[in-house]
Amino acid sequence: MSVKQDLLEILCCPVTKARLQVLNSEIQAKLNKKIQKGLVKNVGGKIVEELLEEALITLDAKTIYRVTSDIPNMIPSEGISIDDEDLILKP
Prior knowledge:
Blueprint: H1 5-10, E1 20-22, H2 25-36, E2 54-58, E3 63-68, E4 71-72, E5 80-81
Antiparallel strand pairs: 1-2, 2-3, 3-4, 3-5
């Protein structure tokens, strides 16, 4: 985990204020496959083109935020909503 624990403890979703946890590698791999196929849009409506190196997910499992070079991107429009039917991440 690149995001330091003390930072993770104070971060929250900028929209819902839900706490965050590190996205597990299995779900990240599934999401990256969908990104490669062009099936993933961010909250702002843009297709996500760059694969996730690491990510944080809200504890309610509704939004994913990218982490790049150990820095979480908490811009609301760049979050990835997993409410979308195409983004069902369960096996």
